[in-house]
Every structure is written in C-alpha cells, then in structure tokens.
Amino acid sequence: MWSLRPHQLSLACLALACAPLAAQAQTVTAGPAFDVSVTVYRDPDRDEGGFDLDYLGGFALITESRRVVLQPGEQTLRFEGVADGIEPVSAIVTGLAAGVIEKNRDAKLLSPSALVEAAAGQDGRVQLVRTDPKTGVTTRTTATIRGGENGVVLETPEGIEGLRCSGLSETVSFEESASGLSSTPTLSIRTRVTQPTEAVIQLSYLARGFDWAADYVVVRTPGSNTLDVGAWITLANGNGVSFENARVQIVAGKLNRESGQIEPIDMGGPIFAQCWPRGSTSDYEPSYFFSKESDYDSVVVTGSRMAMAMPAPPPAAEMQDAAMAVEVIQEELGDLKLYRVPERVSVLSRQAKQVRMFDRADVPIARVYEINFSSNYSTNFTPIPLVLRTKNDKDSNLGLPLPQGRVQMFEMVGEAPATRRLLAGQTTLRDLTIDEETEFEFAGGADVQARQVLESRTLTPERSLPLGPLLQVVPKINAGSRKLDQINRIEVSNARPYEVMVEVRLYLPGGSEIVRADAPYGQKNGRPIFRLTVPANETLTVRYQTMSPTR
Description:
Elements: H1 6-23, E1 26-29, E2 35-41, E3 58-70, E4 73-80, E5 85-86, E6 92-94, E7 102-106, H2 112-121, E8 125-131, E9 138-147, E10 153-156, E11 159-162, E12 169-174, E13 186-193, E14 197-220, E15 226-237, E16 243-252, E17 271-273, E18 287-289, E19 300-301, H3 316-322, E20 329-333, E21 336-340, E22 345-347, E23 351-364, E24 366-374, E25 382-383, E26 386-391, E27 405-413, E28 420-429, E29 437-442, E30 448-454, E31 482-494, E32 500-507, E33 513-517, E34 522-524, E35 527-534, E36 538-549
Parallel strand pairs: 1-4, 2-16, 12-19, 14-27, 24-32
Antiparallel strand pairs: 2-3, 3-14, 4-13, 5-14, 6-14, 7-13, 8-9, 8-12, 9-10, 10-11, 14-15, 15-23, 16-21, 16-22, 17-18, 20-21, 24-26, 25-30, 26-29, 27-28, 30-31, 31-36, 32-35, 33-36, 34-35
C-alpha cells in the first residue's frame, strides 16, 4: 500500500486537471483589420470596356494588419472578413513566433437554407413569427423543424404544418447563429504558442474578383496644337467584402500567372415551401419560399445578419463626379509598372470607383492623317483616320509610363460665353513607355479620303512613269529571279479648307521591294511610308511600283 503526501497529491491533481485543457484547441477570432493594403492586377485578356462585377478576371494582393491575443496551447485563429475569392494556399501570416500548422477557408456563410439546416441539426428549435395582414398583430410560437429538404415542415402546439401555408405572413427567427456558420468569408489557421501572446500580425493573400482599367480624357481646342490630357484609374471589386481606408496600388503589364479553380463560397440556396389544403395532401400547388433576393430579409438572425443584396455600381458619370482628385505615383516592380495612389481609398464591395491618375495641360501635338495600304491591291475611297501625335517625355508635359486604356476626345465648340465641350472621338491606347512616340488615333471623317488603284499595265525597268522622273532601280537586284508588278496609284482627296498632312504606310509581301516611285518615300518601323502635304480642296496622286520574287 502506498500514499502521497499532500503536496504531491496537489501536484498530481493539478497535472491531471491541466492535461485535457492543454490538449484542447482554443478558437480565437483575430481583431478586425485596422490597416489594409490592396494591390490590384488587371485581367490581361479583358477587352477595353466596362466591367462585369460578376466576372472579373483580375486579382489582388491583400495585406491586413490585425491584433490578436493568444493563450498558451494550440489555437485555431480565425480571420473574419477576408475576400470571397481568397486563395488559401497563398495566405501568409507573419508576426506569430510559432508559425502556422494548417490553413483553412470556411466557405459556408449565413443563408436561409444554411440556417434552417443548422437549426435542424440542433433539435430544430426556432421561433415562428406570424403577422395578420388585417389586424397587424404579430404572434410568436415556439416550433420545431421536422424536415427541410423539399419543403420546411414545422411542428407547433397546433400540430404539423408547412412553412408559409397558413395564409399569414410568416418568418422564422433564430435566437442565435448556428455553430460553424459565419456572416462573412473567413480564413482560419492553426498555430501553437507556449506563452500568452498579444501581437500585431500581418495577413497577406491573393484573391480573385478584382480588376482595374485606365481611362483617358483628351480635350482639344480647335485651331490649337496642344491637348489637355487627364487620366483616371477605375478600380473594380466584385467581392462581397469591402476594404475601408486602404492603401491602394495597381500593377500594369501582363503577369504570367496560373492557378487552379477556387472553391466557391457557399451562399446557400432557396428554401421551397410546399403547401396543401387542410384535410388533403394531394393536388397542391408548389410555391417558392426565399426564391427572390428580397425574401432573404425574412430571415432574422439575432446579433448579426448578412446583407445579401449588393448595391449596383454607379453610372460612369456619377463615378467621375465622385472620383478623388489625387495623382498616382509611378514606381518599378521588376519588369512591371506599379502605380501608387498617395491617399487612402475605400475599395467597397460590388463597386467600381475612379481615382485620378494625372492631369497634364498643353501637351504639344501634330495632327496627321494616317492610312495603310497593301501593295498590288485596289481599294475604294475610305476616310483616313486622324492621329494626334506627341512624345511621352517631360518636354511634352508627360514623361511617365502610360498603361493601356480607353481614350475619349472632346473638343471645345462655340464662342464664349456659349462655349461647350462635345465628344469628338473614342479610341484606345496601348501600354507606352517613357520617351516613346504616343499616338491617339480616331476614326476619320469624309473630308479626307484615300484609295489605291492597281493599273492594268506593267513597266519594264527602261520605261518611265507618266508623272515625272522615277527613282533609280534599286541596285543589286537579281532581275532574273524577280518580276515587276503592276503600278499602284494612290489618290488622296482633301475637301477641307486648309492643307493636311497625310502619311501612307505600305505593306509589302515578303521579298518585295519598291523599285520606283514618283514621290520620295522613307521607312518607319521597317515599312515604306509616303509623307504627303495635300493642299486644301485638292486631290494628290502618287504612283509606285514593286518587284516581287517569282514563284
């Protein structure tokens, strides 16, 4: 027989009492994010145009700072309010000395069907709330959910009945949310600490359902050779979570990114109510319960509830009026371009927002009409597009990388004080680097047109064209392996009351070369180009001839 001294017994009991506590994992919810950074990467395959908030192909890097208080032992740490499209595998938590054991995304949210299902799993006890539309009297009855797969069946003190089959307005009230459900998307991690810890930690993760675009507004005064250029960044957040007062960056350029499908957040489905007349269980007409978004408001959750209907994005005009008057700062991010918004911005749920990128006045331009022709093909007269050309450098009041985006050109018309701004054209701009030639191309009008005609006859190298001396035949051409093509005649018509500058660029088949022309030509980007000054109300004609390899 043996015994323990009193102090030994106390220690033994303490050890036995503490063992299960140490083994039991505690669930702790991190504090709300008090500092948020949102870096948005655009969809590289999206065409220029508006956003569809349900199908945003870009993504964002979210970094949040949160406060946590942990007790010794194994902890399940929950981060509520993360983006719907979070990729759990990308989540990084810094600031925890012990590190992370596992990561999980809790994808089941509060919804009518989820709450009914959870209530059924907790003995089904709910409050049935009925309102008489005639008297306005509301009554509350304790009920038990007996079935909910194909229709909600309740047991009340009056017997068994179907939900919303009494002819009165009915809702179901849950005294508390069911375990395992959340009103917002949640990421949970498991960690282990050896001593009480109070810390500020950073959670970073990638999330889908974001995008951004650049929009340019160009204003020109007729008769001037300058433009006023303004640029906006449009941020789009298709998630059900907002990021208030965030530090925002955007990244321009195509990022090679491949990832698998993300498990969707379970928003829950509609609940069906199937009713039958009293005294009969046949010939009933099914009806829907919670089949529309407005019906979601009928589920009351004490303490918190989820707003299921998200606001639609504001019209573009309203966004521009409400946009922030700040100018972004451009930085380098490897081979990509990073634009940092200097002031904090709220990236709200299901919203598109515009932020000022820059404003530049008195940008010098050259007005040029530019058209492209393929040699040895005839065309009809077609309007020549107008190009407003400048250079993306500081001397031209620009000098920063310009991301691709839409361009709207306005012109000031009328005499003061009746001057007004009208839309004169729309186009797109590709990604441009510093010191690169910058062109805003707009559809041309009927006043300046051009066509190319393929003349029926051919010429030998000894003959001359009818409109003046020809350039010499290009030397070192092996005429035995080449043939002279037909003559191409280009006609440029200018119906404007002033002269215009026209550039005609030529596409030549592989191995073909111009061997003679009756106007000087140069090279641009490896292609022949005629630079012509067409007088007011006149038509200018240019002929050229090519030599092609025999086949």
